[in-house]
Structure formats: structure tokens, C-alpha cells
Amino acid sequence: MTTRPYVLLSAAMSADGYLDDTSDNRLLLSNAEDFDRVDEVRASCDAILIGATTMRRDNPRLLVNSEDRRAARVAAGKPAYPLKVTVTASGDLDADLKFWHHGGDKLVFTVDSALDEVKATLDGLADVVSTGPELDWGLVLDELARRGVGRLMVEGGGTIHTQLMAHDLADEVHLAVAPLLVGQADAPKFLGAADYPGGSTARMKLLEARAVGDVVLLRYAPKDRA
Prior knowledge:
This protein has helices spanning 32-43, 52-58, 67-75, 115-122, 137-146, 158-166, and strands at residues 6-14, 47-51, 83-87, 106-110, 127-130, 151-154, 172-178, 204-212, 215-225. By secondary structure, the protein is of the alpha/beta class.
């Protein structure tokens, strides 16, 4: 059996745990130095995944922005850009979003009931794979492994992070904590309520803590719990 990808969750959040506020404009939590760090991490990965809700809300291109890093990937025999991946159970996708029209190959995971709708909406912009009646993260990772993905970066949103953490599928977490407070109950958070492995007393291993400009990067190993 092919080894599943190493799964790295990456998020920038406020000091009170929010990924964004409730305004129509995206809340910029990172700084230029941290954006460059994220670009470096993207360049080290074989695929980058975001949820469809994050795609609709933020409309990201999800690229490796550094020309030097793209050149280094090509020199190493890799495509200039990592595979871009999204997941949707509802099938609510927009073919005009930037995600589909920048970078390299794209892949969508969906469910049987939305498969035809997604294929019709995208009309060849991405490969589309169903995981069955429900979204199955094990099958998602198995299919990515089959396609040669050894290292997967997951950039949200909170529902995706929560599901992967709850299923104990995250190997590493990168949190950039910004010196901001959101305090809005309806704003999206990094993690939601879930039955996490080990319960509330299981402490993840801290791999690194360092300042990146005015944010603090925290790296954890979720599977290494005490």
C-alpha cells in the first residue's frame, strides 16, 4: 500500500483563535515576512489543499510566488507549482474563481451526489474524483498518494482543519499567531468543536516557537501527544 502524504496544516490566526472577521474584506493576519515563509513551505510541498468555502470567501490563486523557488522545483524534476486540491460535498463551485486559472494541475474531491454537477461546472478545468456517498478523508489521502503526493499542505478553512485533526490525520501544524483580537462569535475559527484524539488533557509536542516579524510561529506535532 502506498504511504499516505505527510499532512501539514497551515493557518494564520488572531490571538483569540480566529482566521478572519465577519467583514466583507479579508482580514490580513500575517505580515510580509510570514507570507514569504508560507511561500517557502508551499514550494516544499507536492500539493496544496483548501476547502471550497475558503475558495469562495477568499478567492485565492494559491501559488508559489517566488520565481527562484519555482525554478528550484523545476530543477529538482518537479512541476513549477504544486498540485492544487479542493474538496466539496455540496458541489457549490464557481468556474470563474482564480484557483482554476492560475498555476498547474487541479484536483477536486467530491461525493457521488455532486459528481455530475462538479464535472459540468468545471468543464475540464480540473480532475474530479468522488470518494463515495460521503467525503472520506482516508480515500482523499490514498488517492493523493497514488498520484505521487508525498507532502500535502492544507491551508483551511476551519472545517477542514477540524476534520483532519479530529481524524488524527495531521502530522504537523503551523500556526502564525497575530497580535490582533477579533472577538466576533460568528467569525471563522481555526478549530471548531470536535472529539479530538486524547481528549482535552493530551498535549501536542511543540516543535518550534519563534517570532516572524510581529507574529509568532508555533509548530506542533499533533500525533505526538503526551
